[in-house]
Amino acid sequence: MLDIRLFRFFGFIAAVCMCLNLATRGDAHEVQPTIADLQQDGDTLTLSLRMNAEALLSGIDLDGLADTDDAEDNAAYDDLRELQTQDLANRIPRLLGVWNSLPMVKAGDTPLALQVQSVTVEPQPNFELPRVSILALTAVLPDSASSVVVSWPAGSGALVLRQQGVEEPYTGYLDLGASSPPIALAGGGAASGWQSFVGYIPVGFDHILPKGLDHILFVLGLFFLSTKVGPLLWQVTSFTLAHTVTLALGALGVVNVPGSIVEPLIAASIVFVAVENIFARGLTTWRPFIIFAFGLLHGLGFASVLQDFGLPSDQFIPALIGFNVGVEVGQLTVIAMAAIWVWLTVRAVSYVSQNTEDYADVFRPLSVGGSILIAIVGVYWVIERVFL
């Protein structure tokens, strides 16, 4: 009969390998949305895209992908990352052929032929960060054009589309080969409050699952404290209230703390909750207050995402609430998945040992082992974000 200690040992080793793999991923491989600004000037339509050009040029299917390391063929991306600035700039116009064949922009039933106006590849002082490229495209509008439809190719990840230079501008989020509704060139296409609320829920959820690995590990740190619902509820409530406050203040621009400060502190918060789980057997009196303080940091991290996306100014509150709801649903999904994993582990241990294992007895070694792994990843991130 297989000894239960051996079963747990192999599970621990597998978890170590998985977490070390997660820890060593570079931010340079993180899949980020393309930001597109649409503007009309007379009969000229300009579409300016701020993007990770290497990810789009590589041919990797970016839909639903959090990290290019997860792609089946990521060698092309790594090769493009090695290119010099001018060499990459020379390759970026190749994207135009695919986009025009889609077509990416239509005025009524008329496809608009986009042309390259300028290509800018920003300097890359830190190779561990994504390289930003800006591609400005222009097209001539037909005389009768009053609106345009923008499409984004499947496999290209997400596109945040923002109309500029008009009142009540359109703001949209396109992915999975989606197309925008007709965008009135004169403006007036701003989403309603309900549309903004609903539209930003998947944006918030996506920032947790699959792209928010640091936030996922922090939530797992909360989960691993105790098998009881009460301590988890206290922690999640404290965390939610805190990150809601700084998310709103950060998105409004009232509070603006550089990422170079916020990101290492977020990593440190992961280390703290994980280490405390190892030594604490339940909820301490100070833990909810500390979780609240850490929640303020995580809220600033969420706010940086919204600042990149650009919340619609006339529907700021509904969009902000929608994003926050998406974040909460993502966090609850992480907790639910962890609870299911623990339940399945208890069943597996009971089957191997041919005994009825008590949930708490199995949870404790899982909690300690999982917290140790989370702490290791958190320490690695602190070092990486401070010194690298």
Number of helices: 12
Shape: elongated
**How far is it from the N-terminal to the C-terminal residue, by CA?**
48 Å
Q: Give a quick account of the main beta sheet: strands, pairing sense, barrel closure.
A: 6 strands, mixed
Which radius of gyration do the C-alpha atoms yield?
23 Å
Q: Write the element-wise H/E pattern from the N-terminal end onward.
A: HEEHHHHEEEEEEEEHHHHHHH
**Strand order, largest beta sheet:** 5-6-2-1-8-9
Low-pLDDT segments? 1-18, 20-26
Overall SS class? alpha+beta
Can you give the mean pLDDT?
A: 84
**DSSP strand tally:** 10
Helix content: 40-55%
Q: Beta fraction of the residues?
A: 5-15%
Description:
By secondary structure, the protein is of the alpha+beta class. Mean pLDDT is 84; it is low at 1-18 and 20-26. 54% of the residues lie in helices and 13% in strands. The chain has helices at residues 4-23, 53-57, 75-81, 85-91, 95-101, 193-208, 213-223, 229-252, 259-279, 287-309, 316-353, 359-387, and strands at 34-41, 44-51, 105-107, 110-111, 115-121, 133-140, 147-150, 159-163, 171-174, 183-184. The chain has a six-stranded mixed sheet with strand order 5-6-2-1-8-9. A four-stranded antiparallel sheet has the order 4-3-7-10, with no helix packed on it. It has twelve helices and ten strands. The relative contact order is 0.12.
